[in-house]
Design goal:
The protein has about 140 residues and is mainly alpha-helical. About 35% of the residues lie in helices and about 5% in strands. The protein has a domain of about 80 residues. Strands 1-2 form a two-stranded antiparallel ribbon. The longest helix has 16 residues. The protein starts with 12 loop residues before the first helix and ends in a 9-residue tail after the last strand.
Length: about 140
C-alpha cells in the first residue's frame, strides 16, 4: 500500500489475510489487473463515507470497476460468505461451536385497538392530541 495513504476504512494486513481466500478468482476471461484488496478498500470507503460511486477518490481503482465487483460479489453472496466465515471464527475462538445450537427471539405484542376515541398525530409538533376541527376567526 505504498502508492497511497492508508485511510481508516482500509483493511489491515491481518484483516486482509482473513478474507483474501474468500474473494473469488475467476478462471475465465482476461487475467486480473486490479488489486482486489484495493477494490475491497474502495467498497469499504464508500460504505464508511457514504459517498457516491462516481465521487470515489482517484487513489482507489476506477469507480466502474469497483461497482462491478461489488454487484457481482453481492449476487454471488460473497459478502454473506465473508460474514459467515468471520462470525464462525469468532465463535470458535470464544470456545463455542461454529453454528449456534439455539435461537432466542424476543418479541412484544402491542394491541393497537385498545385506545378509544378520536386521536391523531401532529407531525409538526411531535405530540399526540385530540383531533379537532380547526376554527378560523377574524375573516
Amino acid at each position: 500500500m505504498s502508492h497511497k495513504e492508508q485511510v481508516t476504512s482500509d483493511l489491515t494486513d491481518e484483516q486482509w489475510t482473513l478474507i483474501e481466500a474468500l474473494i473469488p478468482a475467476y478462471k475465465w476471461g482476461r487475467p486480473r489487473e486490479l488489486d482486489m484488496r484495493e477494490v475491497v478498500n474502495a467498497i469499504f470507503y464508500i460504505d464508511k463515507t457514504g459517498c457516491q460511486w462516481e465521487m470515489l477518490p482517484k487513489e482507489h481503482p476506477n469507480h466502474n470497476s469497483v461497482y462491478h465487483h461489488f454487484v457481482q460479489w453481492r449476487q454471488e453472496r460473497v459478502w454473506e460468505n465473508i460474514n459467515t466465515a468471520l462470525r464462525e471464527q469468532v465463535r470458535v475462538e470464544d470456545g463455542r461451536k461454529p453454528q449456534p445450537s439455539a435461537v432466542s427471539i424476543d418479541s412484544q405484542s402491542v394491541k393497537t385497538t385498545a385506545v378509544g376515541g378520536k386521536r391523531s398525530f401532529d407531525g409538526g409538533k411531535h405530540y399526540e392530541k385530540d383531533r379537532q376541527t380547526p376554527v378560523f376567526a377574524g375573516f
